[in-house]
Amino acid sequence: MVRHIVWWTLKEEVDGISAKENAAKMKEMIEALNGRIEGLRHVELSYDILTDDPEAHAILCSEHDDAAALDHYANHPEHQACVAFIKTVVTSRKAIDYVV
Prior knowledge:
Elements: E1 2-10, E2 13-14, E3 17-18, H1 19-31, E4 40-46, E5 58-64, H2 67-75, H3 77-89, E6 90-99
Helix pairs in contact: 1-3
C-alpha cells in the first residue's frame, strides 16, 4: 500500500472567497473521489489544523493499492478537476509518498 500526503498553504482570499471557504470546497471535492477511482482505498482532507502558527492550511491523506494506483489517481480526470481548482487557491504545495 502507498500513502500519499499533501499539504498546502492557501491564499487569504480568491475572488472574495476566504481561505477557509476554499479549504471547505477542496475537502468536499477531494472526499467525493472516495469509491470513484480504482486503486484509491481512501482519501481525506482536513483544514482544522491544531497548531498556533501552521505552515499549512489544508492537509490531504490518501491510501492507494500500490504506486501504479497512485499514478492512476494522480492522472484521473476527476482528480485533475480537483487539481485545477486547488491550483487557483493555493500559494504552496508539498507532498510525500511512502510505502506502508
